[in-house]
Amino acid sequence: MGIASEVFGDALPLAERYAEFLADAGVERGLIGPREVDRLWERHLINCAVVEEAIPEGAEVVDIGSGAGLPGIVLAIVRPDLSITLLEPLLRRTTFLNEVVEMLELENVEVRRGRAEEAARELSVDIATARAVAPLERLAKWALPLLRPGGELLAMKGERAATELEEAQPVLKRFGVRTTELLQVGRGKVEPPTTLVRVVAEREPRRQSGRGRLVGKGDAKRSRKRSS
């Protein structure tokens, strides 16, 4: 819990309530497996919370296929400056998400039931996040239409991140993306560090994204201003 306290700071009590709800109602309703309860913090909450290192101040975020709220709810807890839409097509999951938002009084969160293809007609955001939703080749087709010019897809991926990025190149080229790269965030907080595939839509964003470390780029870190 020492790392959790470092990551969540004053928001730790909210994270603890969310963890308790995940371990109870989340398991009961099939949103998270019972075997995950003992590793909720490291594998799920902290793993998702460190994604905030790659998100600029005050960004509008859509969490695609939010499910149990990972990473969307976690990001809303750790970064109240963000405006977050939890996009989820299944009713039982949106019901769960609405209960969490109400329970934790998360004023920076909107739950929206629907698919990304439908939401693209109305949503235009700075950042799209996703965790365990689909291979990058498919995810890019859903996420990129939701982004403003210069917006970013931050896809949480595992060991196949580099392979998925390579396989998705034809799709990414069709969308005319500006840059793609692999980032690792959460060094010293979660092991292994969380791997993100970062895809920048159309042109470079006006704001620089956070402190995520480029894979294979030594110890250089990006920096961003944080409110006190």
Report what the structure shows:
With 228 residues, the chain is of the alpha/beta class. It has a single domain, classed as Rossmann fold (3-Layer(aba) Sandwich), CATH 3.40.50. The protein has helices spanning 2-8, 12-28, 40-49, 72-78, 91-104, 116-119, 136-143, 161-167, 169-174; strands spanning 60-64, 83-88, 109-113, 125-131, 147-157, 179-185, 194-200, 213-214. It has an eight-stranded mixed sheet with strand order 3-2-1-4-5-7-6-8, sandwiched between helices. Helix 4 (72-78) links the parallel strand 1 (60-64) and strand 2. The chain is globular, with a radius of gyration of 16 Å. S-adenosyl-L-methionine binds at residues 65, 70, 116-117, 131. Specifically methylates the N7 position of a guanine in 16S rRNA. This is Ribosomal RNA small subunit methyltransferase G.
Keywords summarizing the entry:
globular, disordered C terminus, 9 helices, 228 residues, 8 strands, eight-stranded mixed sheet, Rossmann fold, alpha/beta, single chain
List the helices and strands and how they pair.
Elements: H1 2-8, H2 12-28, H3 40-49, E1 60-64, H4 72-78, E2 83-88, H5 91-104, E3 109-113, H6 116-119, E4 125-131, H7 136-143, E5 147-157, H8 161-167, H9 169-174, E6 179-185, E7 194-200, E8 213-214
Parallel strand pairs: 1-2, 1-4, 2-3, 4-5
Antiparallel strand pairs: 5-7, 6-7, 6-8
